[in-house]
Amino acid sequence: MPTDTSRMSPSITAMIRLDHMHALAAFHRYHATSPWWRKQAIVNSTCAALEIHAQLEEEIFYPALAAVMGDDETLAKSAPEHNEMRATINRLRAMGPENAAYDALFMQLMREVIHHAADEETVLLPAAERALQTQLHSLGASMTRRRLQLLGQRPAEIALNTMGTFPVASFLIGAMLVLGVTHCLPKAREPRRAREH
Ligand SMILES: [Fe+2]
Ligand SMILES: [Fe+2]
Protein backbone atom coordinates (compact mmCIF):
# COMPACT_ATOMS: atom_id res chain seq x y z
CA MET A 1 0.00 0.00 0.00
CA PRO A 2 1.57 3.32 -1.01
CA THR A 3 2.20 5.78 1.81
CA ASP A 4 1.05 9.39 1.64
CA THR A 5 4.57 10.61 0.90
CA SER A 6 5.13 8.07 -1.88
CA ARG A 7 1.80 9.06 -3.45
CA MET A 8 3.09 12.66 -3.50
CA SER A 9 6.26 11.59 -5.32
CA PRO A 10 6.50 11.94 -9.08
CA SER A 11 6.25 8.55 -10.80
CA ILE A 12 9.48 6.73 -11.58
CA THR A 13 8.75 7.02 -15.31
CA ALA A 14 8.33 10.83 -15.05
CA MET A 15 11.65 11.04 -13.19
CA ILE A 16 13.46 8.97 -15.82
CA ARG A 17 12.06 11.13 -18.65
CA LEU A 18 13.13 14.27 -16.76
CA ASP A 19 16.67 12.92 -16.30
CA HIS A 20 16.85 12.15 -20.05
CA MET A 21 15.63 15.66 -20.86
CA HIS A 22 18.26 17.24 -18.61
CA ALA A 23 21.03 15.11 -20.14
CA LEU A 24 19.98 16.16 -23.62
CA ALA A 25 19.88 19.83 -22.59
CA ALA A 26 23.41 19.49 -21.14
CA PHE A 27 24.67 17.96 -24.41
CA HIS A 28 23.22 20.92 -26.30
CA ARG A 29 25.05 23.39 -24.06
CA TYR A 30 28.38 21.94 -25.18
CA HIS A 31 30.05 23.77 -28.06
CA ALA A 32 33.38 23.00 -29.72
CA THR A 33 34.25 26.70 -29.54
CA SER A 34 33.65 26.97 -25.77
CA PRO A 35 36.61 27.52 -23.40
CA TRP A 36 38.14 24.33 -21.98
CA TRP A 37 36.95 24.97 -18.41
CA ARG A 38 33.33 25.27 -19.54
CA LYS A 39 33.60 22.10 -21.64
CA GLN A 40 35.06 20.27 -18.65
CA ALA A 41 32.34 21.51 -16.27
CA ILE A 42 29.60 20.37 -18.68
CA VAL A 43 31.27 16.99 -19.25
CA ASN A 44 31.88 16.39 -15.53
CA SER A 45 28.36 17.25 -14.42
CA THR A 46 26.73 15.40 -17.33
CA CYS A 47 28.80 12.28 -16.69
CA ALA A 48 28.08 12.34 -12.93
CA ALA A 49 24.35 12.73 -13.62
CA LEU A 50 24.43 9.88 -16.19
CA GLU A 51 26.29 7.56 -13.82
CA ILE A 52 23.78 8.21 -11.03
CA HIS A 53 20.86 7.81 -13.44
CA ALA A 54 22.20 4.47 -14.74
CA GLN A 55 22.80 3.15 -11.22
CA LEU A 56 19.28 4.14 -10.13
CA GLU A 57 17.76 2.37 -13.13
CA GLU A 58 19.82 -0.76 -12.49
CA GLU A 59 19.01 -0.89 -8.78
CA ILE A 60 15.33 0.11 -8.87
CA PHE A 61 13.72 0.39 -12.31
CA TYR A 62 15.09 -2.58 -14.25
CA PRO A 63 14.48 -5.16 -11.46
CA ALA A 64 10.86 -3.96 -11.06
CA LEU A 65 10.40 -4.19 -14.80
CA ALA A 66 12.06 -7.60 -15.07
CA ALA A 67 9.52 -8.96 -12.59
CA VAL A 68 6.67 -8.13 -14.97
CA MET A 69 8.33 -8.24 -18.43
CA GLY A 70 10.39 -11.40 -18.09
CA ASP A 71 12.78 -11.91 -21.00
CA ASP A 72 12.62 -8.73 -23.02
CA GLU A 73 15.23 -7.87 -25.64
CA THR A 74 15.32 -4.13 -24.88
CA LEU A 75 15.53 -4.70 -21.14
CA ALA A 76 18.26 -7.33 -21.57
CA LYS A 77 20.54 -4.96 -23.50
CA SER A 78 19.96 -1.96 -21.20
CA ALA A 79 22.57 -2.72 -18.51
CA PRO A 80 25.26 -3.66 -21.10
CA GLU A 81 24.57 -0.33 -22.85
CA HIS A 82 25.11 1.44 -19.51
CA ASN A 83 28.49 -0.28 -19.32
CA GLU A 84 29.40 0.98 -22.80
CA MET A 85 28.42 4.47 -21.67
CA ARG A 86 30.58 4.10 -18.52
CA ALA A 87 33.54 3.06 -20.68
CA THR A 88 33.13 6.18 -22.84
CA ILE A 89 32.88 8.32 -19.69
CA ASN A 90 36.11 6.81 -18.35
CA ARG A 91 37.88 7.56 -21.64
CA LEU A 92 36.66 11.18 -21.50
CA ARG A 93 37.90 11.61 -17.93
CA ALA A 94 41.29 10.18 -18.84
CA MET A 95 41.59 12.47 -21.87
CA GLY A 96 40.97 16.03 -20.69
CA PRO A 97 39.41 18.93 -22.66
CA GLU A 98 42.65 20.14 -24.28
CA ASN A 99 42.80 16.95 -26.37
CA ALA A 100 41.66 17.35 -30.00
CA ALA A 101 39.53 14.19 -29.75
CA TYR A 102 37.61 15.40 -26.65
CA ASP A 103 34.75 17.02 -28.61
CA ALA A 104 34.24 13.95 -30.82
CA LEU A 105 34.25 11.61 -27.82
CA PHE A 106 31.64 13.69 -26.01
CA MET A 107 29.51 13.63 -29.19
CA GLN A 108 29.92 9.85 -29.25
CA LEU A 109 28.63 9.73 -25.67
CA MET A 110 25.69 11.88 -26.76
CA ARG A 111 24.83 9.43 -29.59
CA GLU A 112 25.04 6.45 -27.22
CA VAL A 113 22.83 8.14 -24.62
CA ILE A 114 20.23 9.34 -27.15
CA HIS A 115 19.96 5.88 -28.71
CA HIS A 116 19.64 4.22 -25.29
CA ALA A 117 17.15 6.77 -23.92
CA ALA A 118 15.01 6.43 -27.08
CA ASP A 119 14.72 2.67 -26.50
CA GLU A 120 13.73 3.30 -22.90
CA GLU A 121 11.18 5.95 -23.78
CA THR A 122 9.56 3.98 -26.61
CA VAL A 123 9.64 0.48 -25.08
CA LEU A 124 10.48 0.29 -21.37
CA LEU A 125 8.66 3.32 -19.96
CA PRO A 126 5.35 2.56 -21.74
CA ALA A 127 5.67 -1.09 -20.61
CA ALA A 128 6.19 0.07 -17.01
CA GLU A 129 3.21 2.38 -17.21
CA ARG A 130 1.04 -0.53 -18.34
CA ALA A 131 2.36 -3.24 -16.02
CA LEU A 132 3.46 -1.35 -12.89
CA GLN A 133 0.64 1.16 -12.63
CA THR A 134 0.14 0.87 -8.87
CA GLN A 135 3.85 0.98 -8.07
CA LEU A 136 5.03 3.90 -10.19
CA HIS A 137 4.89 6.50 -7.40
CA SER A 138 6.38 4.33 -4.65
CA LEU A 139 9.18 3.37 -7.06
CA GLY A 140 9.66 7.07 -7.74
CA ALA A 141 9.99 7.70 -4.00
CA SER A 142 12.55 4.89 -3.70
CA MET A 143 14.50 6.39 -6.57
CA THR A 144 14.59 9.81 -4.90
CA ARG A 145 15.78 8.37 -1.57
CA ARG A 146 18.54 6.43 -3.29
CA ARG A 147 19.48 9.45 -5.40
CA LEU A 148 19.99 11.50 -2.24
CA GLN A 149 22.34 8.81 -0.91
CA LEU A 150 24.32 8.71 -4.15
CA LEU A 151 24.55 12.51 -4.36
CA GLY A 152 25.76 12.53 -0.76
CA GLN A 153 28.62 10.24 -1.74
CA ARG A 154 29.99 12.71 -4.29
CA PRO A 155 29.10 16.19 -2.93
CA ALA A 156 32.34 17.90 -4.01
CA GLU A 157 32.04 16.68 -7.60
CA ILE A 158 28.42 17.79 -7.87
CA ALA A 159 29.04 21.16 -6.18
CA LEU A 160 32.04 21.97 -8.36
CA ASN A 161 30.26 21.28 -11.61
CA THR A 162 26.71 22.28 -10.86
CA MET A 163 26.60 25.78 -12.35
CA GLY A 164 23.92 25.71 -14.99
CA THR A 165 24.36 22.08 -15.89
CA PHE A 166 22.87 19.82 -13.24
CA PRO A 167 19.14 19.60 -12.65
CA VAL A 168 19.38 20.34 -8.95
CA ALA A 169 16.34 22.57 -8.60
CA SER A 170 13.83 20.17 -10.11
CA PHE A 171 15.37 17.28 -8.24
CA LEU A 172 15.17 19.06 -4.90
CA ILE A 173 11.48 19.78 -5.33
CA GLY A 174 10.83 16.05 -5.84
CA ALA A 175 13.06 15.17 -2.91
CA MET A 176 11.21 17.54 -0.61
CA LEU A 177 7.91 15.96 -1.54
CA VAL A 178 9.19 12.45 -0.99
CA LEU A 179 10.85 13.20 2.31
CA GLY A 180 7.83 15.08 3.54
CA VAL A 181 9.76 18.19 4.49
CA THR A 182 7.21 20.61 3.14
CA HIS A 183 5.98 21.14 6.70
CA CYS A 184 9.32 22.86 7.39
CA LEU A 185 8.44 25.63 4.99
CA PRO A 186 6.79 28.77 6.38
CA LYS A 187 3.04 28.46 6.17
CA ALA A 188 0.98 31.04 4.37
CA ARG A 189 -0.69 33.31 6.85
CA GLU A 190 -4.35 32.79 7.40
CA PRO A 191 -6.37 35.87 6.62
CA ARG A 192 -7.32 37.75 9.76
CA ARG A 193 -10.93 37.71 10.61
CA ALA A 194 -12.52 41.07 10.83
CA ARG A 195 -13.46 41.80 14.40
CA GLU A 196 -17.10 42.08 14.97
CA HIS A 197 -17.94 44.76 17.49
FE1 LIG B 1 19.18 3.38 -18.97
FE1 LIG C 1 17.45 6.12 -18.69
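^ fe (ii) ion complex. The chain has one domain: 4-182. Residues 36-69 form the longest helix (34 residues).
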